[in-house]
Design goal:
The chain is of the alpha/beta class. The protein folds into 2 domains: 47-127 and 244-286, Periplasmic binding protein-like II (D-Maltodextrin-Binding Protein, domain 2), CATH 3.40.190.10; 130-234, Periplasmic binding protein-like II (D-Maltodextrin-Binding Protein, domain 2). 37% of the residues lie in helices and 22% in strands. It has a 6-stranded mixed β-sheet with strand order 2-1-3-12-4-13, with helices on both faces. Strands 9-6-10-5-11 form a 5-stranded mixed β-sheet. The protein is elongated, with a radius of gyration of 30 Å.
């Protein structure tokens, strides 16, 4: 009986020893364990940056810097939005790190209306308005009573009127600036008729008006080449270009994070400036 007990106890000891050895064998040695910040394969784990953006040109521009950011340890995730509200709300909520879709006047108005705390950290590009031919094609010889179609929203109508003023077609009341409307026209030597239309509709009246003033994206959609077809356009140093540059934005307090610094450096690079110059035919122009 004693021998049986001894044999049973010996079997238990052997079983325990084999199990313990197996567990120890499966546990990686300290030198084999994955270091912090690396994947099991030994690759460095990337820090994710989430950016909310509109599709064109913003998401397209961001796509150009994914590799550059990866080289610096960041994985860029671009989340596209079709509206102009949610990209700011998700930044405010902390769901994404930044957004890229708007200009400063829109941001300022949004913050005021929604009580958000979003700030601009970099001007990346602007999309110039241009004057395009309709029934007429010579700004130096405008027919008396010529019809000129312009966007009717507050922002773009003022820009259109300033562009017409810069080309000697009208004169606007002093101080009206970027809030000007057709009521602020104080001199109209050609008696031009300013036809106010929703921005997306302006290009549709090319055949019915003498000239049209179009945003860059609508000019491209209408088949115009901005560089070759625009009779005049906002220049890079113009007030509108400086004011309405499209900006990279973050929540206040995140201006100096490593993610923000990496995004700014990537989007302000010569590579991005060259991509814009090569792909948008002047409808998008890199900011200084």
């Amino acid at each position: 009986m004693k021998n049986i007990k001894k044999l049973f106890l010996l079997a238990l000891i052997v079983t325990f020893a084999v199990t313990a050895f197996g567990c120890a064998k499966n546990e990686p040695a300290p030198s084999e364990q994955t270091p912090a910040g690396e994947t099991p394969s030994g690759e460095t784990e990337l820090t994710k940056i989430k950016v909310a953006a509109s599709s064109v040109p913003h998401a397209e521009i961001l796509a150009q810097v994914k590799t550059d950011l990866a080289d610096k340890g960041f994985e860029l995730e671009v989340i596209e939005f079709a509206d102009y509200v949610q990209p700011n709300m998700v930044v405010e909520a902390g769901d994404v790190d930044a957004n890229f879709f708007q200009h400063k006047p829109y941001l300022d108005n949004f913050n005021e209306e929604k009580g958000t705390n979003i700030v601009s950290v970099a001007a990346v590009h602007f999309e110039p308005l241009g004057i395009y031919p309709g029934k007429s094609n010579d700004l130096s010889n405008i027919p008396d009573g010529a019809a000129i179609a312009v966007p009717n929203d507050t922002t773009n109508e003022a820009r259109a009127l300033l562009l017409l003023e810069a080309n000697g077609i009208i004169r606007i009341k002093e101080g009206a600036g970027l809030t000007a409307t057709k009521k602020d026209i104080v001199d109209n030597p050609h008696n031009v008729d300013i036809v106010e239309l929703e921005a997306a509709q302006v290009a549709r009246v090319v055949a019915e008006t003498d000239f049209v003033v179009l945003n860059g994206n609508y000019a491209l959609e209408a088949g115009f080449n901005v560089e070759n077809d625009a009779l005049a356009k906002e220049e890079q140093e113009s007030e509108a270009a400086q004011t309405y540059a499209n900006i990279l934005c973050v929540k206040k307090g995140n201006e100096e994070t490593e993610k923000t610094k990496a995004l700014i450096e990537a989007l302000k690079s010569d590579k991005v400036k060259q991509f814009i110059a090569d792909n948008y035919e002047g409808a998008v122009v890199a900011a200084d």
